[in-house]
Each structure stands twice: as C-alpha cells, then as structure tokens.
Amino acid sequence: MSARNMMLQVDDCGGDHCGGSRAPLATPGLFPAEPMPLHRPVMLEEALAGLAVSRGSVEPRVFVDATYGRGGHSSVILQRIRPGDALYALDRDPQACESARQRFGGRADFRIHQRNFAELREWARSENLLVRVSGLLMDLGVSSPQIEQPDRGFSFSSDGPLDMRMNPGEGESAGDWLARASDTEIADVLWRYGQERNSRRIARRIVETRAAEPLRSTIQLAKLIASVPGPRSRSIHPATRSFQAIRMHINGELAALEQALEAVIELLAPGGRLAIISFHSLEDRLVKQYIREHSQTVRDGETLKPWLQRIGRSFPKSSEIEANPRARSAVLRVAEKMRT
Ligand SMILES: C[S@@+](CC[C@H](N)C(=O)[O-])C[C@H]1O[C@@H](n2cnc3c(N)ncnc32)[C@H](O)[C@@H]1O
Q1: Per residue in 65-80, pLDDT tens?
Q2: Which atom of ligand 1 is nearest to the CA of 115?
Q3: How far is CA 118 from CA 90, 184, 209, in A?
Q4: Which of 91, 116, 194, 305 is the Cys-Cys partner for 241 at CB 3.0 to 4.6 Å?
C-alpha cells in the first residue's frame, strides 16, 4: 500500500493531537495533588489490566512507565503495586520529570529519569533492568500540559514561539527547521505524518513567506496555513494536520518508537507485559507489526520460537470519549513475553 493510500487518524480536538485533557486525578488522600495543568489519562483501567499490575506474584516486580507525562497512569500503578515492587518512569520532557519529582520524589519505590525512550535498552542496561521488567507502558504523543502551555509552541490556539520540542534542550526547534528546510522536505513531512492534502502548496507558501519575514510564532504559522487555498476538512482547523506533522518530525516520534520496540524483548521478564497506547495510525501500525512479527510461530514454512503472545487490542469506551474527546483516536495493544 502506498503511503498516500494509508488511512491516517488525526485528532482534531481543539486543533491539536494529544492523548489527554485537563481533569483532576482520582487519587484523593493517597498522594499529593498534582499542580495544574493536569493530564487526564487515557484508557487507564484497560492499560492497568493490560500490564497485569494486580496479578499475584511472590517475586518483587518492576514496572516501567516510559511516558510519565503528568503521572496519570503512574499514580495508579503506584497505588496498586505491592511492597517490594518498584515503578521506574521516564519522560524526555524536563517539566514532566520535575512534576514527577515534586509529586512522588519521596517514595522509595518510584524513580523518574529524564530520558528519550529511544534509549530504552541503554537505560535499562545501566539500571540493571534487562529481563526484569514485569510491565512496560508507553502512552504515546504529547500531554495536555505540553499542548496548553503557549511557550512550548505545540498549539495554534494560543500564540507562542514555534518550538514544539518535548525536550527543549535537545535538537532543532520547529521554527529553526522551517527556516532552513526545502519546500520538498516540508511537503514530505506534512504529507507523511499529517496526510495534509495541501502539503505542497503550504510548503511553497512557507518558503516564500520566510524569504520576506522569519516565521517565529505559532499563530503566524497557523494563519499562513489557513490562508493557503486548497482542499479542506470542515471538521478540523486547517492547521491541525500540519502542526501534528511538524511536531512528529521535530521530535522524531516514529523513529523513537521503532528504537524502543527493538529493546522490548530484552527488557521484559518472562511473562512480562507490554502495553502501548497510540494516537496515530502510523504509530499503531509499527506496534501492530512489531507484535505480529514477534508472535509468529511459522514464517516461510519454517517453525519459529515466538517471543511474544498477543493479548489484545482495545479502544476507549464511548463514555470515555464523551468525557475526554481527546481519547477518541486511542488504540491500546497488549502483548506478553513468552515464559519459555
Ligand atoms: C500522552 S503523554 C503521557 C501521559 C501520561 N500517561 C499521563 O497519564 O499523565 C506522553 C508523554 O510522553 C512523553 N514522550 C513522548 N515521546 C517520548 C520519548 N521518545 N521519550 C520519552 N518521553 C516521551 C511526552 O513528553 C509526554 O510527557
């Protein structure tokens, strides 16, 4: 199937692709409250069931939340693990890590590390966690606080610098990339990650405009995109697809996911669970292919020893989508590492 024919899900809520929305977390009394802004965790119970956090075990277990965000999933994992168990959390965003330190820094069974999950294998090796992880969670995409803080530059609903980096200390900002990329490169990104049908026209307009004035702000870019004539969806803001595509490119999101997946088998203990929530069809395709490949028993007539067993795929309930429209493009896939 050509890239152009692939179905792509794009979250069109309020103009940004994101896995959550503002909401109070249901942890009254147990943990310190999370200061605003918050992130409402998507498919919380399904993910926790997928990780088998409540499964009986005599051995102390290790869980890894590779996308801490604002701890929506981590906080409930911490409520349900037993004495002796531990939760390691990662996020590439320094603000997410600072928030985790403030909220759970006092717990001996919790660690937060600012890391890109692309480095999962190296990180796990340095923490002596290879073949020891009972549950690995990845809740992909961006968090509500990232979207809602104008100075992070993810949103076209409020004005901010064109940044879009999850870790502002790493790599090139969206503004710097748009200032130097060729129109072909920009068009390819808009098409590949956003299936923006106007990709070429938008890319040309960016290159023409920047020759006269630098593109510095989110609103400036959103207005430029909206001013380009061409086919439009009536249900989403004209800049939705381009912003999502630029964000995915700037953060190397698919490449990071591919690298993390390569490390999963090495991390998981026998019987350990992998649970991944994705919001974009290209991400979900990578996850699906990875699980399928590693659960194959026969390929080209040859009998294989499968590494994984597929546990299932699920979608948010309609009640969750009603309460949190940003959940609607979510897909959760769960697999278990074979015991022998
Ligand atoms: C959808 S949010 C997770 C929300 C979290 N589950 C919660 O309920 O609060 C995704 C988070 O993953 C982080 N993230 C995305 N890609 C990452 C990567 N390659 N490495 C580490 N963290 C990443 C983002 O910075 C963001 O904080």
Answers
A1: 999 999 999 999 999 9
A2: 21
A3: 11, 27, 35
A4: 194
